[in-house]
Amino acid sequence: MLDDLDLKICRALQQDGRLSNAELARVINLSPAACFDRVKRLRRDGYIRGFAALLDPEKFDRGLLVFVQVLLDRTTQDAFSNFAAAVRLMPEVLECHMVAGGFDYLLKARVKDMAEYRRFLGDALVSLPSVRETHTYAVMEEVKAQVGFGV
User: Fold this and answer.
1) Do the beta carbons of residue 40 and residue 81 sit within 8 Å?
2) Using one digit for the tens of pLDDT, what is the confidence trace for 78-91?
3) Is 73 helix (H, G, I), strand (E, B) or coil?
4) Which tops the pLDDT comparison, 148 or 122?
5) Cα 98–104–107 angle (5° rounding)?
6) Are residues 68 and 22 in the same domain?
7) pTM for the complete prediction?
8) Are residues 133 and 102 in the same domain?
9) Cα gap 110→18, rounded to integer Å
10) Are 130 and 81 a contacting pair, CB within 8 Å?
11) Which end of the chain offers a freer environment for a tag, N or C, measured as fewer CB atoms within 10 Å?
12) How many other C-beta atoms can be found within 10 angstroms of the C-beta atom of residue 51?
């Protein structure tokens, strides 16, 4: 069970994962040794899964963000497994979520531009196992993009 100090640690690290232990301890008003032990426990227990750098997609020629609804032609365990395995190998796909509702998967992908997306859609996405239909939503403006969630 997480207490208020654990939650403060998680909030601080979501805002800046590069905080040193001493800086983190100062931010949450705890001794460095106690802070270190708490972070170690949070990592061991799976509350903190890892740390990553946030990269500027424009600098890496990945300026176009798209969301794609994917409907499979059948909803069998094999179809789901084969589709998921194929998507995991696609570097353009940042996230893939199986959803309930009128379609089966929601993908979040980044590519250079619309021409590259058209190639990705035609050469890779629609040729994935069991894909029957896709609907694409190109992002015109990222109003709020947040890593993590409020704790």
Assistant:
1) no
2) 999 999 999 999 99
3) coil
4) 122
5) 60
6) no
7) 0.86
8) yes
9) 25
10) no
11) N
12) 9
Residues 72, 98 share a domain: yes
| Nearest one of 55, 46, 11, 8 to 150, comparing CA atoms | 11
Residue of 75, 86, 17 whose CA lies nearest to 51: 17
Structural domain count of the chain: 2
Q: Is the pLDDT of residue 129 over 90?
A: no
Measured N-to-C along each axis, helices 32-44 and 4-15 cross at an angle, to the nearest 10 degrees, of: 80
Distance from the Cα of residue 1 to its chain's centroid: 25
| 3-state SS assignment for residue 18 | coil
- Residue 113: inside a domain, yes or no? yes
Asked if residue 112 and residue 80 are part of one domain, the reply reads yes
Which pLDDT tens digit goes with each residue over 4-43? Answer: 999 999 999 999 999 999 999 999 999 999 999 999 999 9
Residues 6+ apart with CB under 8 A from 33: none
CA atoms within 13 A on the CB side of 98: 13
In this structure, the answer to whether residues 73 and 130 fall within a common structural domain is yes
Instruction: Evaluate whether residue 143 is within a structural domain.
Output: no
**Looking at the structure, do residues 76 and 116 belong to the same domain, yes or no?**
yes
